[in-house]
């Protein structure tokens, strides 16, 4: 099958399985995977727990029905915090990902040498 | 007929047709047709994702749910938004790095058999068509209410427009219709929210106090548990919402319209801000409608509450604002259905026709022509199904699409990127089990069988007690992928499966960004 170049901002070259394996085993690539994992795994666990805490608390307890301020209950506060959490994690990831890009550029540059 | 609303509808139609005419000159290659040549900026793609995602169910449905059920309606807003963290952290960038035009492309990088591509394309078409029927049924009901045009005619008008955008304008027109719609929707929602806050004297606490007085639910309006009384049902719904987005084919294809993973990431960040701000404002829409339109008037216009937002606009700003908001709702439906038609057509033409039937040898012209025929075919099928589905609950069709996406697509996507041992067999098991279980459970759920006449399609005792299947079907999809892989590990080597190192390197670095 013929491969067609995608409009990517780099030139196309197909590597052999052995070349991929050698990249996968390189220190730079391992470092990339490691720092990605140490970010993504804990943060994913955190946001899933934070998210599911809301339906679990509202379904099985009444503690969020207490007043936070006037008629505003803790349920609404917790719901709004989900928005803040989403935006915050989004921006944190965006900042962090600059580092991922830096390492992956180095790996690509290395390969092209 | 409401003349102002009618004129606004015409303006929207004219605007979208101008966009399509302008875009039609650019669509000569499959890459332009399916993905706008991959040339959208992060900001443009973020707006288009938002425009593709905030469907009529979001604008009309959530506003109505909050107005009628209070806090429980807001679960949708939260789930729909938090879902973007799953997309951003786990799916968007690897998908952009591996795929080309469709979700099946990405799976096919790892598994070379036609079977897998076929299943992936089939799932894409099933999910897109379910989702489209929901949008078309909503469109028919809305236009009927706003303009007095009957249901069948309304569905056919929307159907013809969506076919025109996609057939002539491809992804360029679809994207720009979505961007235009996102701007209109945000502007309309912001305007109503400001008017609502003004009416409440700019006091959030005052708003909560007043709404509590205004609804028949009183205190209960502000507490969870009005609509979702069963804890498992709530969990099932929220699980489907948060995991479904990352498997929705029409959202996934939006990552192929940008150059690289970095721009895919920035488009998710833009989309998350826009969508988040919109969903925060659904509180004002819902509360405003509860306080200034009132429960009985909302349900009188539409039992499910879908007219809450347009009625609120009328109460606050008279007929002109009503006309504007109705036109925004119409634009919303057009943008979403266009995205769905294009996704389903790409799956048919790129995956079935070119890759499987023609073994990748169809010429560019043949591919684009087939994509155009497929768009027409899919539109016709959806219109016919929507005409039959007139009396179905729209929200249940949308939640079904989310559940299928989370159960059948997400496990395959995640295993493909992250699990070394995953094999062809596991991929097929995950897709088949995810699809059959999620659709099957809905068929035997209270949405279809209900002991009281008139509440569902058939009278009878449901076999499955929950209204959404997610809590059972999503784990089963993942389990099937795991079991299928483990039970066939010895034979796995016989597949034409690329080494995991290649997937790992390519999905993480964007190296060798090609398909096949």
Automatic annotation (TrEMBL), chain A:
Pfam families attached to this UniProt entry: DUF485 (PF04341)
First and last residue of the signal peptide: none
Membrane-spanning intervals of the chain: 39-60, 72-94
Record key words, sorted: Membrane, Transmembrane, Transmembrane helix
Protein's name in the database: DUF485 domain-containing protein
Organism from which the protein derives: Paenibacillus woosongensis
From TrEMBL, chain B:
Residues making up the signal peptide according to the UniProt record: none
Originating organism: Paenibacillus woosongensis
UniProt similarity note: Belongs to the sodium:solute symporter (SSF) (TC 2.A.21) family.
Location of the protein in the cell: Cell membrane
Alphabetical keyword list: Cell membrane, Ion transport, Membrane, Sodium, Symport, Transmembrane, Transmembrane helix, Transport
KW Transmembrane helix (keyword) present: yes
Main location: membrane
Protein known as: Cation acetate symporter
UniProt-listed Pfam families: SSF
Domain of life according to the entry: Bacteria
One MF annotation (Gene Ontology) recorded for this entry: acetate transmembrane transporter activity
Membrane topology: Multi-pass membrane protein
């Amino acid at each position: 099958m013929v491969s067609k170049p995608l409009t990517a901002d780099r030139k196309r070259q197909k590597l052999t399985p052995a070349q991929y394996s050698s990249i996968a085993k390189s220190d730079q690539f391992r470092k990339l995977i490691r720092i990605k994992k140490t970010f993504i795994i804990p943060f994913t666990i955190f946001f899933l727990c934070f998210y599911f805490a809301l339906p679990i608390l509202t379904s099985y307890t009444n503690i969020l029905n207490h007043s936070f301020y006037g008629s505003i209950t803790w349920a609404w506060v917790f719901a709004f915090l989900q928005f803040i959490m989403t935006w915050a994690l989004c921006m944190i990831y965006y900042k962090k990902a600059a580092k991922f890009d830096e390492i992956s550029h180095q790996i690509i540059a290395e390969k092209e040498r | 007929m409401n003349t102002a609303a009618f004129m606004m509808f015409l303006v929207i139609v004219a605007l979208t047709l101008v966009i399509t005419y302008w875009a039609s000159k650019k669509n000569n290659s499959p890459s332009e047709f399916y993905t706008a040549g991959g040339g959208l900026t992060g900001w443009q793609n973020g707006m288009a994702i938002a425009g593709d995602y905030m469907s009529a169910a979001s604008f009309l449905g959530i506003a109505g749910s909050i107005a009628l059920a209070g806090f429980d309606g807001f679960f949708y807003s939260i789930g729909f938004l938090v879902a973007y963290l799953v997309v951003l952290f786990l799916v968007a960038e690897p998908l952009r790095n591996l795929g080309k035009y469709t979700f099946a492309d990405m799976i096919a990088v790892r598994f070379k058999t036609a079977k897998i591509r076929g299943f992936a394309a089939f799932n894409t078409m099933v999910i897109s068509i379910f989702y489209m029927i929901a949008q078309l049924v909503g469109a028919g009901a809305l236009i009927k209410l706003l303009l007095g045009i009957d249901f069948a005619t309304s569905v056919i008008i929307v159907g013809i427009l969506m076919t025109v955008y996609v057939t002539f304008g491809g992804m360029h027109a679809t994207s720009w219709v979505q961007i235009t719609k996102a701007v209109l929707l945000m502007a309309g929602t912001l305007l109503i929210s400001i008017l609502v806050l003004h009416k409440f004297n700019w006091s959030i606490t005052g708003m909560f106090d007043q709404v509590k007085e205004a609804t028949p639910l009183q205190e209960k309006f502000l507490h969870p548990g009005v609509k979702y009384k069963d804890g498992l049902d709530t969990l099932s719904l929220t699980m489907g919402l948060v995991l479904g987005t990352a498997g929705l084919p029409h959202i996934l294809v939006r990552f192929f319209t940008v150059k690289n993973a970095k721009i895919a990431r920035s488009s998710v960040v833009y989309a998350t801000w826009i969508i988040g701000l919109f969903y925060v404002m659904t509180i004002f829409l819902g509360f405003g409608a509860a306080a200034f339109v009132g429960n009985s008037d909302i349900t009188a216009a539409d039992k499910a509450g879908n007219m809450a937002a347009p009625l609120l606009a009328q109460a606050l700003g008279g007929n002109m604002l009503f006309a504007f908001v109705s036109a925004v709702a119409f634009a919303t439906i057009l943008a979403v259905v266009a995205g769905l038609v294009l996704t389903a057509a790409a799956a048919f033409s790129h995956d079935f026709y070119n890759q499987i039937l023609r073994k990748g040898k169809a010429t560019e012209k043949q591919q684009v022509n087939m994509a155009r025929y497929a768009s027409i075919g899919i539109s016709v099928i959806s219109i016919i199904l929507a005409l039959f589905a007139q009396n179905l609950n729209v929200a249940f069709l949308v939640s079904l699409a989310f559940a299928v996406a989370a159960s059948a697509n997400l496990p395959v996507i995640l295993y493909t990127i992250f699990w070394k041992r995953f094999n062809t067999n596991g991929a097929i098991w995950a897709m088949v089990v995810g699809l059959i279980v999620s659709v099957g459970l809905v068929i035997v759920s209270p949405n279809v069988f209900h002991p009281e006449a008139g509440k569902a399609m058939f009278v009878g005792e449901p076999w499955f007690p929950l209204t959404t299947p997610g809590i059972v079907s999503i784990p089963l999809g993942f389990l099937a992928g795991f079991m299928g892989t483990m039970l066939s590990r010895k034979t796995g080597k016989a597949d034409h499966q690329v080494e995991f190192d290649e997937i790992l390197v390519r999905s993480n670095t964007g190296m060798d960004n090609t398909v096949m």
